[in-house]
Design goal:
Elements (H helix, E strand, L loop, with lengths): L10 H17 L1 H17 L13
Length: about 60
């Protein structure tokens, strides 16, 4: 069974992420961009593999 799911970011989650990335970018802007891309990528993959949310190795 192949169902399509979409990942939605709450306002709180988006604001938290902006604050975290802003904090990191003060000392290392390029690293902050990499971390943001990685977080967004991992979050968007949750619609395909939602059970991986509980896999601590991901």
């Amino acid at each position: 069974m192949n169902s399509t799911r979409q990942v939605f970011w709450t306002d709180v989650a988006e604001n938290d992420l902006k604050e975290i990335i802003g904090y990191i970018s003060i000392r290392n802007p390029s690293n902050a961009k990499q971390i943001l891309k990685k977080i967004k990528s991992k979050a968007s993959s949750r619609h395909t593999f939602p059970e991986s949310l509980f896999d601590k190795s991901v």
